[in-house]
Each structure stands twice: as C-alpha cells, then as structure tokens.
Amino acid sequence: MPHTTKKDDRENVVALFNHGGGLRGLIPCHIMTYIEKRTGLRMSEMVDIFCGPSTGSILNAAMTLRHPDHPHRAKYRARHMVRFYEREGRNIFPQDRFRELRGLLHDVNNRLTKISQLESIFKHGHYNPQNLGRALRALYGHAKLSDSLKSLVVPFYSIDGSNTPDGWKADAATQAMHHYAQEGGHAVWLRNMKLHNGQHHINKTPDVSLFDAVMASCAAPTYFPCHHFDIGWPDDRGVKEYAGIDGNIFDNPAVTYYGSLRKQLDPHQKLSMICLGTGYTNRTISREKWNKYGSLGVVDPVNDLPLINIFFHASESALSHSLIHELGDDLHMFNRSIIAEDPETPNVRFDDGSPENFKKMRHFAASIIEEKEDHLESVCDMLVANRDKKQIKQREAEGDKKGIFSFFTGE
Predict the structure, then answer these.
(1) Backbone angles phi, psi at 350, to 5 degrees
(2) Handedness of CA 303, 155, 378, 82 (dihedral sign)
(3) pLDDT tens column, 65-97
C-alpha cells in the first residue's frame, strides 16, 4: 500500500523571521521585494507574525507600520526598505578607519592605565547612535508597538538585572525566575500579538515606541552603546527603565519559536515559519588560532569578532535540529554562507555601506533566489493562499455580525 500523508486541517499561521546583520539587512529586503513582485501583495497582507532581532526588527517594524492615510494598509513595501538601507547606510555607519583601533585602545585603557582623558577620545569604538536614531525617527515617526498592523515581536537583551523578565506574573510559580532575573540580565520579547485566538487575552501589549524597541534591538556590542528607555507594562510592574542591547545576542528562529511563538498558538493552529537570512558568517576556528587570540583577540573586529559570532550562532546550532524536526515542511529557510574567497561575495562585516558592497548584496540575494527558485515559488503560493483564507474568514465574520445586527434591528 503506498504511503499517504495525512492532511493537516489546522489553521495556518505564517511567521516571518528576518535575521540580524546590520546593513546586510539588504539581503532579505531584496528577497521580500521579489516575493512582493511575484505575488502582487505586500508582505503585511500575507504574513501573520513578523519577528527577528537587530536589523530584522528595523524591517519588521517598518513592514507592519500603518499607512497614515490608509490605516488598513502598510506604509512601506520591501522596495522602500531597499532604498532606506542604501540611503541611510553610510550615515549610520560612516567610514572610519580608526574605529577598531579606538575600541582596542579603550579596552587596554580600561585594563591598564585608567586614564580618564582617553575615555572621551576613544569613544569606546562606537558609532554615533544619533545617526541611527535620526533614520529610525524619520522611518517610524511617533508610532508605538501597539500600532502595528500585524503581530510584531521585537527582541532585545536587558543588561540591567533590576527589572523582571518577559512574561513575568506575580504568582508563586514565577518567584524563582524573578529572583534569577534580579541577579543578571535577561531576554525580553516586546510583543503586539494580533492573532485573536484563545491566547489573545494573555497578550497585553506593553506601552513602548517603535523607535525605542528597535533602537534597543539594534544596539550591537562594540558598534553601538546600550539604549536606555522606558517600558510601560500593563500589569503590576508599571513603568520600568531598561538598558537594552542587541536582540541578536540570544534570538534566532529556534529561540523565538520555543520561547515566544509556540505558546501563542491554539491547538487548532499550526505555524509556518519563513526565515530570511543575511548570510551565514560563523567560521571554523582551529584550536591553535583560538589560543593565539588571547582575551582581547576574541572580541577584536580585526578577527571578525570570533567570540561574539559564537554567541550569536551557538544557541541556533544547539536548537536547529529540534526546530527542523518539529516544523518539518513548514520551515522555509533562505540563506547561504557569506564566507567565500570570491571577490563578489558581500563583506562579512555588517557596517560596510559602500556602493560596491550594496551591489554585491543585491547579487547575493539574487543567487539565493535562483538557487531556491522552486522552493520560493511554493512559499509565494502558500503566502497568497494564507491571505485568501484570512480574507474569507474575515468576510464570514463580518457577515455573521451583520446578520446578528439585522436580527435585532429587523433590517
């Protein structure tokens, strides 16, 4: 007897995960531009949940931002975000040949000399966050997380242990976790969930601006300082101050699924996750090279920040097998290695805003689209079908409401 696959009648919920990677966010921008051209629809019309850290959060917040004149439609398409990165990239990451040197000397100063004058000269090796801030202000205006058109999840890592973790409730079952969070930093998912299912009552959106949420999620160590801001929680926590750094520190598709998304679904729902990458950058390191790095070398940008790269990839590699096993054919990943000797490969550094690198990223995205053409076509069909089913469901719900109104009014 031939093997047959049992039909899954559960309602499909589509999540889009855009990876972090600075200006390499252009790569998923180009892929989404292809999807929008192929389908004739905005991503916000086809996707139910937008998630992802750092530059992914810039994209997700923009793609779910309501149009001021047409509030049922998103303000931006993917092609608008391509222009955003190409226009703002050099402003956010201006060319600075001595940034890495200042960062290294700052570390040496902290360890050895403690000369206060050097503190202001070296500027910690950071880029000026005001440049990123101006670009995001122009992009989002004064919109809040609660204004998002679709479900939006923005992750950041709170380095201040005085605040409580994501999902905190004032009951005995969470006191141990609360005590743990007091001892150090913790992961935070800022969520505005709009699935309108049985879990909807637990999803009380915090009061925070898109600007602050995304600035925190983009505060990449050694590139930007931490972002200090307030979050108003709709529970006993009230308004709390946070010092946030890059959500890329902990977040990836597997962590988001197990830590944030799975518990948002009802039993009659299943998740399809689309993951758009910015290029794999995790290199293999020989034990001889690792031992030669020393304590400063493992975080030196000259060595491609080996320790930070390991932090970014370790949890994903640990959980990837479980994620692939659980989602199976409902997991759609579009990414490839960006580490190659080919001079046409984009720069692994995510602060290269040169026109040459922008061109390389466009070609890199095109190579992913060509390599995964059949898979991407099936994803486009799935996205359009998801939009169509949601529209039918919405019309039926509106028809039911109209019928109830007519029954009581006699119209």
Answers:
(1) -95, 15
(2) negative
(3) 999 999 999 999 999 999 999 999 999 999 865
Direct distance between the N- and C-terminal alpha carbons of the chain, in angstroms, rounded to an integer? 57
> Which DSSP string corresponds to 275-323?
EE-S-B------HHHHHHHHHHHTT-GGGT-HHHHHHHHHHHHHHHHHH
Angle, vertex CA 375, rays to CA 325 and CA 84, nearest 5: 105
- Give the number of other Cβ atoms within 10 Å of residue 356's Cβ: 12
- Tell me the pTM: 0.85
Identity of the amino acid at 56: G
Phi–psi pair at 347, nearest 5 degrees = -65, 135
CA distance 250 to 253: 10
The continuous run of DSSP H or E covering 194 comes out as none
Q: Is the dihedral of CA 392, 398, 400, 403 positive or negative?
A: negative
Query: Residue type for 396, please?
Result: E
Round to whole Å and give the CA distance between 136 and 28.
18
Tell me the one-letter amino acid at 232.
Answer: G
Res 367: pLDDT: 96
Three-class HEC string of 326-371: HHHHHEEEECCECCCCCCCCCCCCCCCCCHHHHHHHHHHHHHHHHH
Say if residues 336 and 371 touch (Cβ distance below 8 Å).
Answer: yes
- In this structure, what are the phi and psi dihedrals at residue 299, rounded to the nearest 5 degrees? -120, 15
Task: Specify the pLDDT at position 3.
Answer: 45
Is 180's pLDDT higher than 50?
A: no
Query: What 3-state class would DSSP assign to 147?
Result: helix
Provide the pLDDT for residue 175: 46
> Does residue 189 carry a pLDDT above 70?
yes
* 158: Cα within 13 Å, side-chain hemisphere: 26
* Longest Cα–Cα distance in the chain: 84
User: Looking up tokens 């039909």, which residue turns up?
Assistant: 7
Q: What are residue 162's DSSP bridge partners?
A: none
Q: What angle do CA 235, 238, 243 make, to 5 degrees?
A: 120
Query: What 3-state DSSP class applies to 168?
Result: coil
Share of the chain above pLDDT 70, in %: 80
Residue 166 main-chain phi, psi, to 5 deg: -60, 135
93, HSE (Cβ side, Cα atoms, 13 Å) = 22
What does the block give as tokens for 268?
A: 């009659």
Report which of 277, 304, 355 is spatially closest to residue 28, judged by C-alpha positions.
277
